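Suppose a colleague, Dr. K., hands you the sequence of a protein chain of 254 amino acids and asks what its three-dimensional shape might be. Before reaching for any lab equipment, you can write down a predicted structure in token form. Begin with the sequence itself:
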Amino acid sequence: MAYYPLTQRDHGFQILDLKNLARSTSKTFERLAPYTLLQNPSSSEAQPVVTKVINKLKTYIEAIDSSINVVHMAYQMSKIAGALWTNPGSLSEKQALIERIERQKRLEDLVVLADEAHKKAQKAFNVFKHAEQDFYRIAASTKDLNHTIQIPVDPALRKRISSPASQSLTFSSLAKLITKPFKDIGTDLVSNLSLLKEFSRHISNLTSWSGGVKASILAIDGTVTPTRDGYLLVDIVRPKWDKVRTDCLIYHTI
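The predicted structure, expressed as tokens, is then:
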């Protein structure tokens, strides 16, 4: 049975919940995306505030995009890990040397992906952790505006966001514009804070997981070398990565 030197930390696998992240992503995108396409037919006076609201909400959609990209990276990481944590069986001296070289390259690739995933997840989390402050500010800035605003309602929106195409926000022919008081926009956003907190929690866990994967491989001096503080069985590590790969595929079907 093959052993690979690696830290004994679980590096966050137990908190990674991609299925519920997928559901939370869909709901959060569905609630926030329409606010990036607000239309202001009633008053040029309100346009500066409308523009500020749209730009602020776009940062949230970009953060959701980042989280989707992190899941793509997690899938790629799982494929690398699948090849990395495989029992090589009995090897000749030459084969063992080749295997060590290939293993080192896979470890380096895994660290690069984990580092990039961690940065993107952290960036997304940094946006959503300010949701309460941002949305209450929007509510305060719109509560005294006696103007109307138009917002698209698209019943097909949620069905189309399981793909990674949320970077280009387009609405289907089924979308309709509804008119409502501008001052209601802030209240509507604030009413979604509990949903956004749930999404933020999932992104925090994704951040911890990707950072933990990187930390579990890097030595103290930053070199891509397995640490020497423990040994993990392939039979223990491989199933964790297999589950990540399966959950990443399920993520895009929810």
